[in-house]
Structure formats: C-alpha cells, structure tokens
Design brief:
This protein has 15 helices and 12 strands. It is of the alpha+beta class. Pfam families: Peptidase_M16_C.
C-alpha cells in the first residue's frame, strides 16, 4: 500500500466548523517531535490492538485503520467493487439515510472517510473530543450497518465513471495505466482500482454487502490513534467501533508478483504538444534492509526536487522539462523504483537519454560525500514536519505498525538514515538501477525515440 497517503474526507464540513478543526490541527503541530514520541500499545477488553500517541493539550482525536489486503482482489467482472464500497459507507447507515448521516457528520464537525488501495482498505475519522461518542457511533454504523441504497449506488457509480472518462484524456493517467498493466499483467496490481466503464454497471447492492461481510474482519485489522484520549478509553472505543466485525475472514490473498516488461519502451501516440515519460524497474520493499540506503540514493537521484541530479541535468542545465523526478514505491507484494516527467515532443529523445544516463551514472559512481551529507540532513531534518497534525501522526503511526517496523521506529529513524554508508549506496545503486531493464512508457508524439512497441489508441 501507498505510504502515508491521505485516506480522510472532509466532505460536508461547514466553513465555521472547518475553521475550528483547522485551528486545532494547526495547534497540534506543537506536539513533541518524533524523537521524543511516546507510543503506547493498547489492547481492548475484546482483544483489539492499537498504537496510541496520547496528547491532551489539544481536544482532537484522530483514528486511522486499515484492513490488510481487503479489496485487493475484486471479483472478475466486478472490478471497482472495493472502490465503490469506499464511496458508499457513509451514504446512509443504521437508522440514518444518506442525507441524515451526512448532516450528523457536518453538525458535529466529524470527518469520516474511506479509501480502497492495492494492499488494503483504509478508514479515517477525526473529531473534536466533545463529539467523540457520536463520531465513534457513526463510524461503527458505517462499518457494520451500511445501507448501500440503490439510489446512492447509482449516484456514486456515475461519479466514478465520469472521473474515469475524464482521466482517459489525461496523458499522465494513460501513462500510469499502461505502465502498471504492462508491469503486472494478470495480477491485481495491473488493474484499475476504480474498475472500468464495463465492470462498474454490473456492481449491485448485494455485491457491496458481500464485500463488507467478507473483507472487514478483525483478523486483518490494524489501528492507530492520536490525540485527546486515554489508553483505557481507547480500548473501549476499539471494541465499540470494531468489536461487531467478524473475528476472521476468508478473503482471497493477494499473491506476490515479479515485474514484467523489463527493457521495453512502449509508445502510446497522442496528438499532444508534450510527451509524458514514465519509467521504472523493481525496487525495494519497506522491510528490506536496503530501504534506508535506497531512500538516501533516491533523494539525490530525483527525489530532492531542484537539488536532485535529474532536475539539475534535465531542467536546470538544458531546460528540457519543467519537472522530472524519481521515487520509491513499496507495496506488500512487490516494489518499484520509478522516474517520470514531461517534455516537448521534439526533445523527448534527448530528455529520455539524459534520464537513462543519470540512472547509469548513479549505478556506476554512487554519491559524492557532499551529496550524502546533504541527503541525510534533509531526510532527518524534514521528517518532523510530516508530524504537523493529529491526523498526520496517526496516519504515520498506522503505517509504521502495518509495516512491522517496531513501536520504537519513530525514535530510531534518524539513526537508521545516518547509518547508511557509501558502500551501502554503491551496493544498492548497482542492485536497483540498470537502464537496460527500465520499462518505459511514453504518451505523446516523441521525436528521437525508437519504441519496442506502439499501441495505437490504447490506454
């Protein structure tokens, strides 16, 4: 699953209430930095475990959770089921129809949202402490008694289908879609999580009910919380929200997968002024011992904005692109190291060559001592800025717990980064970066490029 992605929804918050929440979330930036964070392991009376950062200075509670693997394998012909479910859980539940449910969230300034991903189905709840009981009850109802009314399903389905149609005209989306379809054919990672214009009409309310019953189980539940709540009260809250879920589920597991398409250059011609470039090859998972060295390496290669090599060589020296970048994508069953950007069609071949040259230079030479020092300074110094709100802390805490990094990880992270050596960088760069193995997808009318495959009218 994606690391630290936002799974919340502020839909329905009125301006005054939103301002109140924003004030408290800004104030939460004064929370202790990561190196001093006290994380408590909480086990509810019913046996549900969560990690908690308790903080009573600000009257806000953030609760984050994920059902590992849930939604990763939609039934054939019903692709997009998990995503539709994520849009439907707050569209009426228990005794409340959609309008009433949304009104109760709005009146109490409760933010409740859900998101389906490649590796799990996530949820997020934020509330002022005074409204905690109401927020917990609405969350419980959404998870255990959703309505899935036909009218709401038709409305949400139409919205998703409209977004898919819009994206088909976006070269960046087309490039991503083709990359994953090529890299992971016949695997859930290769599909479109929102489904297709053909599969979405087949989804019924009964499909959604079966999804919730079969995917939301306490055996795959991971929870984190931050804010104004004691461990004892959090234990009670966990049982209230999640205690009614099945103890175990029989959902089909997602298999591990090896990336396909290595060395291919795929062109999808489009009548656009610029060419979108996307390339990648196998990377490192989050629990790989080389993760920290890969993180430092990637910061210098293309993850450091204007200070990165790709930006320096492609944009600053030659003006070939407004932006070019690289990044790591750790997933549960595979991992990628990727790079991308866009350039005018006439310069596409030149830009692509330079990106591949930088890929090879990093693999051959590694980093300079100054690049290493600057990367470590940034990666350690900027991390506390990610802990700038109650929700941000809860979200990161959830990911740390889910990735089995250890309850003391946030206190140890800087040490792991600073321990990376030049030998580590050289080993990892040689392991990960081979321009001959890059899967490259181009969307546009690039000049100076010889594709191995051209897909006319494809997406």
């Amino acid at each position: 699953m994606s690391v630290f992605h936002d799974v919340s929804s502020a839909r329905g918050l009125p301006p005054i209430r939103l301002a109140v929440v924003a004030f408290f979330l800004t104030a939460a930036a004064l929370l202790s930095p990561a190196q001093a964070m006290d994380i408590k392991r909480v086990v509810s009376p019913g046996g549900i475990e969560a990690w908690l950062v308790e903080d009573h200075k600000v009257p806000v509670l953030a609760l984050e959770w994920v059902f590992d693997g849930a939604g990763g394998t939609d039934p054939k012909g019903k692709e997009g089921l998990a995503n539709i479910a994520s849009t439907m859980l707050d569209e009426g539940a228990g005794p409340y129809d959609s309008q009433t449910f949304q009104a109760r969230l709005q009146d109490k300034a409760i933010a409740l949202g859900f998101e389906s991903g490649r590796d799990g189905f996530s949820g997020s709840m934020r509330t002022l402490a005074d409204n905690r009981d109401e927020a917990l009850e609405l969350t419980r109802l959404a998870l255990t008694e959703p309505h899935f009314a036909p009218e709401a399903l038709d409305r949400m389905r139409a919205s998703v289908m409209a977004s898919l149609r819009r994206d088909l005209a976006d070269p960046n989306y087309v490039a991503r879609r083709q990359f994953y379809a090529t890299a992971f054919p016949d695997h859930p990672y290769g599909g479109e999580g929102r489904g297709s214009l053909e599969s979405l009409p087949a989804i019924t309310p009964d499909d959604l009910r079966a999804f919730v019953k079969g995917q939301f189980g306490r055996d795959r539940l991971v929870v984190a919380a931050t804010g104004d709540i004691s461990p004892e009260d959090l234990g009670k809250a966990l049982d209230k929200v999640f205690g009614g879920l099945p103890a175990k589920t029989e959902a089909k597991p997602i298999p591990d997968v090896t990336m396909s398409g290595l060395g291919q250059t795929i062109l999808l011609p489009r009548p656009t002024a610029q060419t979108v470039m996307l390339m990648g090859q196998p990377g490192v998972k989050r629990d790989d011992p080389d993760w920290y060295a890969a993180t430092v390496m990637n910061y210098v290669l293309g993850g450091g904005g204007f200070g990165s090599r790709l930006m320096e060589e492609v944009r600053e020296k030659r003006g070939l692109s407004y932006g070019v970048y690289s990044y790591l994508i750790p997933m549960d069953h595979t991992a990628l190291v990727m790079a991308g950007g866009s350039t005018v069609n006439a310069k596409a071949g030149q830009a692509l060559d330079i990106m591949r040259q930088e890929w090879a230079r990093m693999a051959k030479d590694g980093l300079t001592d100054q690049e290493m020092a600057d990367a470590k300074t940034y990666l350690t110094g900027s991390f506390p800025l990610q802990l700038g709100s109650t929700q941000a802390i809860a979200r990161i805490l959830l990911q740390v717990k889910r990735d089995n990094l250890g309850i003391d990880y946030l206190n140890q992270r800087d040490r792991y980064i600073n321990a990376v050596s030049q030998e580590d960088i050289k080993r990892v760069a040689r392991r990960l970066l081979d321009p001959a193995k890059l899967l490259t997808v181009l969307v546009g009318k690039p000049e100076g490029v010889t594709p191995t495959r051209t897909i006319e009218g494809g997406s």
